[in-house]
Amino acid sequence: MAQNVLMELNGVAKSFRSADGAPRLVLEGVNFSLGEGEIVALLGKSGSGKSTLLRIMAGLIPTDAGQSTYRGRGIHGPASGVAMVFQSFALFPWLTVQQNVELGLEAQGMPAPEREKRADAMLELIGLTGFGGALPRELSGGMRQRVGIARALVTNPDVLLMDEAFSALDVLTGETLRNEILDLWDCNRIPTKGILIVSHNIEEAVMMADRIIILSSGPGRIRSEVKIALPRPRAADSAEVRALIDEVYGLMTMRPVQEARTGAVAAPRPDYRLPETDVSHIEGVLDLLAGAPFNGHADLPQLAEEAELSDEELFPTYEAIGLLGLAQVEKGDITLTPLGRHYVEAEHTLRHQIFGQQLLTHVPLAARIRQRLEQEPTGTLAEEPFIELLEESLEADEAKRALEVAVEWGRYGEVYEYDFHTGRLKLPDRAAE
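RE: above sequence
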């Protein structure tokens, strides 16, 4: 168990400005600490503020309220004892592997001979001996991420922050690199005293962490904490690990407290950030759930294994299916509703009709688009007013993506059409007649 606090957040809040200048609250009232000897994993749905929280701890962005500290001192910029590994590798393509790894040491003013010695030792430790003269483009994704990790560790940081560090890699490469990092940590071969991992992968979090923190969304708040006392290395197929994975799935899909008390699901606003999933994923999961061996009811981890989709892809799909009233997700289980069973048994044309009906009933953005189109004499509208509506609570790129999701769902449900050349929405031909 951790003895000393390395990093701490007290009452941290963070907002960003929307396109209309109004503040959009991303984090609110976050209280969190990372202690010596701990690996902590941070989980949450897209939009929960995980990466924002990590960047606050790295000193890359300031808080709007509350305080963030490293070893008791306020964080007002990058701290020398804190290093970060990014999902995108973030390497300078014109620099060699050796030069990329030496960057942090150079920024600290270390003389060239010592930089080279330290970088060589770290490249050997991380499995990159002989690659110091290579350029990033000459390396595989796994090797590029090794360079990113070596660059972070070469400065001997107290705290290592990892933002989706393995998610851009294939499953086998990510698992191998994850296990190597754990081996370095557990064998005390690196001086790092605390690691915070942001992840979408529940199994990864359970395999690595001593604690798992789960953030709620809109704004991000700490909703749940799971402590893991299992020694490492952990067997992914052990009963203890599988039980923890089930527990975390249940917490990740748990409804907000007010909904759980009343049994009612709050209707989303028109500017609600739609789950980023496509119709093929929705139908694939529904068809899989309806068939053997599940027959309409499944444990989410087992369904995820059968679906061969990542947690990052599956959680928005579960949310979409629940939003459309085709299944209920609760306590780590998913169950087809009667309408959902009717849907999977229906012919193609009827599926379109059911999907469209549910879309208009449960997705206010789609209903608003349809209503506005019906009010227009021409039956067509530009997309810009709907993007502006979404930008009241979302960043510009998020708003654009939310409209793209609404367009795909609406086209499938034959609620409206979209002209990709002109960026205009229009009523389906039969509705315009």
